[in-house]
C-alpha cells in the first residue's frame, strides 16, 4: 500500500505570534507559528485579518522573535525550531516569500531538553540573539552588518550552565551598552544529589543576567538574584533613555520589577472575586507597547483578564508599579499590540481575535500598586475585582480555529452531494461542534423576489472607467427588467434597453455605450441616448452571442456567424460572416489583451461534440485555427486569461496563459490551454462538477478574473498562491450569474435561482472547508452519530469547573451585587457570535469561574445538527465525568439501540491517578432518539475509556481489562474478561469475531472471542510501544493508528498468520500458543509509517467527493485536517516518489530541518509520499520547475496537472 | 456433588461403562445389520449380523473372515471392526456385492430398453442418441424426490436418496411413487433431527457464552467469575 499525504486544512491554532514591520515602512504585520506552518498575517483596511503568506516549514517551530538592526526600517524574523539550527528570515514583499538570510547549525535536531531553540531572547537594539534550551544550553549569536549593509551572524558563544532549568529568557534593554540577557533559572544539582528530598523542597529560582561583552566577544554571568519560586515569565522594560531598563518578573500572584542594583518593586495581581483561595494567578502572555513619551505593558492572566502595567520612574529609579484591570478576552498564547491601534490575541483554544483599542485604560478601574502593597501575617493583602464587559477594546474580527480537534466523524447526515465533517473542537467554555463542508463560504448580501422566473442576469457599467456597476439587467422568457444600482436597487425604464423582449446578452461596448442583444437584433445604446438597431436578416433569430469590450459575434439559427467590431467612432460595424456546418451550441470571445485592439480568438462549440477556435484577425478572419473534439456536446464556453506573474502578493512565478473552459452537457468541465500565438489547443484537463451542464461566468476575485461554474452546485475556479483551485461554493443551485460591484460590495456576484435575485460575496479564499459552529457547554470528549435518526450524541466534561446551575446561581448573585439585575437572558451555553452584545458576561469571553481542581462537571447531549438544537442534555451529578460512549444493540433484548457511557467519579491525575468510583451508564433512547432515559448504571473497577458493541453485547476497556458485558435487569452482567493488556485500553474496534484493542502505551492487540469457551484470547500484538491517540479499523487484518508523537501508522497481520488463526478449528493453537516475554504469539507488521508532526486525535476513512475513492481523513490537535489517499497505480507512485525526491533536493524546507528526517522523526517513513512538499512545486522559480520537470521527462504543466488531479481525487 | 471425585464417582463411572458397553454392542449390531441389509438387495438373506454372540459371552465372526476369529468383549469387537484386516475383508465383500449388483442392473436395463420405448425417446434416437432409460428414470426419481423436498430448506441426506434410488428399479414405476412418499416422511424427520441438533448446539453455545460451564455429568453450573441475572434461564432445566 502506497499513500499520498495531503493537508486539506492547515493548522488553525497558534503556538506563538510576533508583530513587527516585516515588509518595511509603515506596514504592520503579524507572523504566527502554527506548529509546522509559518504564516504572515496583516489586518487590511477593513480590519479583517488577511493571510498574506503561509509556508509549511517541515519542522516544529518552538519560538519566534523579531529584531531590527539600528537604523533599519525592517524587522527580521528569528525562528527557534527543532532543526538544530538558528534561522533568520526576511520577508520579501515583491515575491511574497520568506528569504532565508542565515541558517546556523548549532547542534542536533529534535526537541530534547538540552537542545536550544525553546527560548529566544533578542537584544532590543538588534545586536545579539540568545537561543536557549529548557536545560543547560544557552548560545549567543552576535548580529552585525557587513560593509554592504548585509546582516552577518557570528559563531555561537556559549553561556551554558549545567543542572539548570530555564523558565524564560529575554533581552534586557540597556541602550547601547553591552547586550544583556535575563533568564529565570533553577539549579537542581543539589536536589539531584539529595535523596531525602530536602534540597528539592528548598530549591530556589534565580533571576540571572548574562552579559555579552562585545569587546571581548565573550558571555559572562553578570548578576544573579533570588526570585519567587512562582516566577514563570520575564518581560523587557524599555531602557537606554526610554525607560528605567530591567525586567518585569511575572510570578504567581505578583509582578515584580527587578534590575541590577535596584530594589524590588512588587505589586499583587488583582484577583477575580470568585476565585477559590487555593488558586493562584499566573501571567500567561504579555505585550509591551512603546510610544515616544510613554510605554505600558499588557499582561494576561490564565483566566483571560488583561491588566495594564505601568511604571512610575525617574530616569532609572522605579518608584511605583501599577497594575490596572484593563479588559477580559479569551486566554491567549500571544498578544501583539500593533502600532495601528489593534490588538491581536492568538487564542490558546478557539477563534483568534483582532481587537481595536477604544481607550488605553486611562479611566479609573481596579488597580493594585506597589505603593499600597500590604503585608499581613498570612501574606500580602490581595486586591479583588469583578470582570466586566469590554471597555477599552472592541473586537473587530476573528480568525476561526479548530484547535484542538477532539473527535471527528465524516457522514452525510444532511444528504448533500458531499459528506459533512463533524468535529468536536475547543476546550472548556470555548468548545464547539463544527460542521465542515468542502467548499468556500459565501455571505449573502441580499435576496429579492422577482415577478417571474428569470432566465439570465447581467450587470453593466455605464463607462469603462466606472468603479461600480450601473445596472442589473434581468431577462425573463418574454421580457427584460432593468434595475439601477444606487443607494437602493430599483427598477428603471429610461435606460434605453428594450424591455418587451428577452435578452441574450447585455454588456458595455466601446468606452461608454451599452449593447443589448435580443433574438431579433442588436440594440446599441450610445452614451448620449442615441439608439442604433441592427436587425437579423429574414426570419432568422440570434441564438448565441459572444462579446468582449470591442468585439461581438452573434450566431444565427442555422449556424451563421456574424462578426461585429467597434470602430473608431464607437459604431458597431459588421465585419465578416461565416457559415458553420450546423447550429452553434455556444461561443465566446477571448478578452481583449492589454494594449491591443482586438482579441484574436473566437471559440465556437457545436452540437457535433467539437469546439473550434476561429481567428478574428483581419488577415485570416474566420479561419479555423484549431479543433478539439469532446466527449459530449458543449454547453458553455469561457476564455480565462491568467496574467503573467513573478510571485507577488498572491501568486507564484508563472507566465501568462490563456485557458479555454468548456462546460459539457454531461456535467464535466473541460479546461484546455490555448496557445496565445497560434491558437493551438493542448493540455486538456477535465473534471466532473455535477449533474447539470456547467454554465460558465467570469467574475472578479481579489481583483483577478475568476470563473464561476454553475452546475448542480456552484463552483469557483481561481488562482490562489500559484495554484489553480476549483472549489465548490456552499450555496444552493444557481441558474445564471454575473459579477457585481457596488458601493456596499466591491466584489460580489449577482445570481438568479428560482424566482429570486441573490447577491452574495465569496469569503475566505484558499480555504478548503467552510464551517458552521454550534457552541457546547464543556470540553467535548467523544461523540457518536445516529445515522438513521440524524442525531449526534456528545459527551462533554471539564475539570475544575462549576456545573451550569451553580454557575447560573452565582452569576445571578454577581449581577445583583453589581446592581445590574438579571438581563433576562438565561443562556447557559456559551453563545454564538453576538453574545458579547447581549450578555455582559459571556462564558466564551470570560471563561468559566474556576472551582477546585478535583471537581468535575460533565454532560451528555443529544444534538440535532440540522436545526442546531439540543434535544436532550443530561448533566451528570456528583463529580462524575463521562469519558467514553457507544451505542449498543443487545441481542434479543427488548430495548433496541441503547447508549452506553463510561464515567469516572472524582478523577484525579496528581499526585497519582485515582478515582473514587467508575460506572457504565446505560441509557434508552426516547422520543425517536431525541431524548435519553437512564436504564441503569453499573459500577466498575476502573475508568472505562473504551466501549464498543460486540455480538450483541458490550465490550468495555476498563483500565487494563477487556470485559464483555451483557444487559441485565438492574445492571450490566460481566460475562467474560481478559486481564492481559499491558496498561490501559483506550480504543476498541470489532469486526466479525475479531476485536482490535488499542492500548494507551502499547499499540494494537488483536483478539478473538470464543463462544464455546467463553474466553477472549489475544493472538497478535505490535512489537513497537506506540502511545496511541487515535485508531481506525481499515480491514480484517489492518488497523491504522496515530500516536502522541505525531505519527500515523498502519499495522497489518501477515496473511499466513491470519489464515492460520482463521483456520484453526479446534482453537487449540490460539489457546495454548504463547509469545515471548508475555507478548502475544504473533506480531503485526508495520506497513505504513509517516510523521505528521502534529498529534493526530481522530481518524476516519471517507470519501469527500461524490463517488470518489475513500481516503483516510485525520484531524489533529493543532486543528488541521489531512488525508491519506492510496495510490491506485504503480506509475503514480513512481512519479510522485521521484517528484518528492527532487523537491527534497531542490527545495529544502525553510527552517533547516531535512524533509526526510522530519517525516522519519520517530520511525523511518514508509510508503507515504508527502503531498504537502509536492504541492510546493508551483512556488519554485520557473527555471527550477523546468529542471525538475526535465528530470521527470515531463513539462511543468504536466506536473501541475498531476498535482491537481490527485488533489481532486481527495477533495 | 463434586465434579472431580468423591465416593459416588467410581461406582457411577462403572455403571456408566457397563451401560456404554451395552449401547456399543447395540450400535455395532445395528450398524453391521444395516449395511448388510442394504447390500443384500435381493432380500434373500434376512437381518443377520456379521458376528455371533457365543454362549460364553464372547463374540465370533462368521461372515467376512475365512478363519472366524473370536473376541472377548464388545470393546475388542469394536476395535476389531476398526482394524485393517476386518476392513479389508469387509470391503472385499462389499466389492463383490456391488459387482453383482452392477451386473444385475445392466441386465435389467437392457431388458427394459427393448420392452418400453417411450415416445419422448423418439426424437433423441433421430438425433442419433442412444436412449438411457436407466439414467432417465433415475433422473426422474431424483427430480421427484427433490421436488417433494424442495419445501424443506435443509440439506437432504444424499446417501439415503441414492440408496433408495437403487432399490425401486426392479420393482417398477409404481413403487417409485410409493417409495417417494415414504422418503418424504423420512426426509422430514431427518432435517428435523438436524435442526434440533443445531438448535440444541446453538442453545448450548449461548449458555456457554453466558457463562455456564459443564460438569462431568453433562450438568451445567455457573462460572464463579461471571455474573448472572436473577431470572436467567437455567440450562439444566431448559436443555433437560
TrEMBL record, chain A:
Keyword annotations: Nucleus
Q: Where is the RSE1/DDB1/CPSF1 first beta-propeller domain?
A: 14-367
Q: Which GO terms describe its molecular function?
A: nucleic acid binding
Return the Acidic residues bias intervals: 830-842
Principal subcellular localisation of the protein = nucleus
- Listed InterPro entries: Beta-prop_RSE1/DDB1/CPSF1_1st, Beta-prop_RSE1/DDB1/CPSF1_2nd, RSE1/DDB1/CFT1, RSE1/DDB1/CPSF1_C, WD40/YVTN_repeat-like_dom_sf, WD40_repeat_dom_sf
List locations, semicolon-separated.
Nucleus
Q: Which GO terms describe its cellular component?
A: nucleus
Q: Where is this region: Disordered?
A: 818-848
- Where in this chain does the record put each RSE1/DDB1/CPSF1 second beta-propeller domain? 442-762
Task: Domain (RSE1/DDB1/CPSF1 C-terminal): give its ranges.
Answer: 858-1177
Q: Name one Pfam family in it.
A: Beta-prop_RSE1_2nd
Q: What is this protein called?
A: DNA damage-binding protein 1
From TrEMBL, chain B:
Which Gene Ontology CC terms are recorded? Answer: nuclear speck; spliceosomal complex
One GO process term, biological-process aspect: RNA splicing
Q: What keywords would UniProt list here?
A: Metal-binding, mRNA processing, mRNA splicing, Nucleus, Spliceosome, Zinc, Zinc-finger
| Compositionally biased residues, Low complexity | 31-50
- Ranges for the region named Disordered are 29-51
Q: Where is the Sodium channel modifier 1 acidic C-terminal domain?
A: 200-236
Principal location class: nucleus
Q: What's the domain of life for this entry?
A: Eukaryota
GO molecular function annotations of the record: zinc ion binding
Cellular location of this protein? Answer: Nucleus speckle; Nucleus, Nucleoplasm
The chain positions of domain Sodium channel modifier 1 zinc-finger read: 66-87
Q: Which PANTHER family match?
A: SODIUM CHANNEL MODIFIER 1
Please report the name of this protein according to its UniProt entry: Sodium channel modifier 1
Provide the species name.
Daucus carota subsp. sativus (Carrot)
